[in-house]
Amino acid sequence: MSELVSAPGITVSFPDCQVGAQLPALDLPLDRTTIVATAIASQDFEDVHHDPGKAQERGTPDIFMSINSTNGFIDRYVTDWSGPAARITRVGLRLGVPNFPGDTMRLTGEVTGVDGDAVTLRVLGSNDRGVHVTAEVTLVPTGGNAR
Fold first, then answer.
1. Rounded to whole angstroms, how far apart are CA atoms 61 and 45?
2. What is the pLDDT of residue 93?
């Protein structure tokens, strides 16, 4: 474990902050309800996230997960690893293939940088068709300096 000082006299330990450390994989089965509910929860009312007919009219076989939902699942994955003593300061992501009902998205991650109290991760989310999302996430201990 690496210890990072978050404030004078307070030390926080992330699970493993060495560059190259792998985060445990997380498999997320995605059904229609999850895709619709997460789109609505993030206030993304675009019809392709809840109306199969409209999604098909736009050229996809079914509804698909929204970028806001993807971002939320990335945040969950990272904070499940880091614990409550961390704060995400930056997320940059690029979408690839869509997530449809019936898919399972597998999230994996790796520590790619440690700079003072900031830890940078590379997170991938994949399904059977390929990479759904590639993200770079930076986090600091709660009370640490945002970068």
1. 19
2. 97
**Residue 93: strand, helix, or coil:** strand
Q: Taking residues 39-51, what's their average pLDDT?
A: 92
In the numeric block, the tokens 């445990």 are attached to 24
Nearest in space to 120 (alpha carbons), one of 84, 92, 83, 80: 92
Q: DSSP label at 75?
A: H
Q: Between residues 101 and 17, which one has the greater pLDDT? A: 101
Predicted TM-score of the model (pTM)? 0.86
**How many whole angstroms separate alpha carbon 70 and alpha carbon 100?**
12
Q: How many CB atoms lie within 10 A of CB 29?
A: 10
CA–CA–CA angle 97, 128, 72 (5° rounding): 55
Considering the four listed CATH numbers 1.10.760.10, 3.10.129.10, 3.40.50.920, 3.40.50.720, the one that applies to the domain covering 14-146 is 3.10.129.10
Count Cβ atoms within 10 A of the Cβ of residue 66 and give its class: 0-12 exposed, 13-18 middle, 19 or more buried. Answer: buried
- Cite the beta strand spans of the chain per DSSP E: 2-7, 10-14, 22-29, 86-95, 104-115, 118-127, 130-141
